[in-house]
């Protein structure tokens, strides 16, 4: 009897708490601290490493971690966190396997996954929090193009198709005669799909290195030259694999627009630009997605301002515009679907059969 009581007392709190309660506690922990907590015990490691927990934490945690990152000195990725009570920064080396650091570019971020372009002809898929990385070559796409050598896609976007549990990378290669070839990479199947036939008409004029904004299952691009409010935004639907157009607010004074772009503010699509007449940055926020009458104007008394996200109390967080590309990033422990399937196959292959 005494021995049993002694053993009970020697048990740690972690062993006494039921897994369901531990999971509820972990949901309150910012995701970037969870990676360190895996070493607390085998149970914690199992809970935190579970893809279902990673998915649940991403969608329902009250301690979501938002940040932005940019390339520093052409070789490092610099992260800045937006947490109200924990403003911090860190630098990380991109996952290039100790090779001489090349020049690289950011193609997008979605659900904690970042896509980098690495010269000469490859993309790198990277989750900085888990350390997972994967290199994908696209050199086989180049022989059919009318140009050769190192060249970034003119138009690109990265997003998640919830209907297929798949991440898609869309790239458009611009010929000198303003024609585009469109290709889509599925990270679940590791296969390329040509989307030239999905365009009912030629694309408009976009920036030389135009990055799409992912929202509501679609990727959005803003026309480089805002000459009219009509059909100013190009949309690619991830599920249907189709393109459509969306109009900007009619109140836009086209001649006064400069350095325009798209942003995601509080889950809403936002269009911003420098207003040369007022020396302000005008930010139009679409309160209801695809409801044209829901555009609302906000003005920042600064002409060099790029909105990034909203703080917890609704303030717009932004930065002074510069040539550096800043990408908003939400950290997660989410794996790629193909990685989960590979692990299941490995576990299935190692599992003994019933006859054994």
UniProtKB/TrEMBL annotation:
Tell me the ranges covered by the F-box domain, including all copies.
11-56
- SUPFAM superfamilies (alphabetical): F-box domain (SSF81383)
Which keywords, in A-to-Z order, does the entry hold?
A: Membrane, Transmembrane, Transmembrane helix
* Record field: transmembrane: 252-273
Stretches of Basic and acidic residues bias are at 340-356
CDD domains named among the record's database cross-references: F-box_AtFBW1-like (cd22157)
Supply the InterPro entries for this chain.
Answer: F-box-assoc_dom_typ1, F-box-assoc_interact_dom, F-box-like_dom_sf, F-box_dom, SCF_F-box_component
- Chain spans, region Disordered: 337-356
State the name under which the record lists this protein. F-box/kelch-repeat protein At3g06240 isoform X3
Protein's organism: Arachis duranensis (Wild peanut)
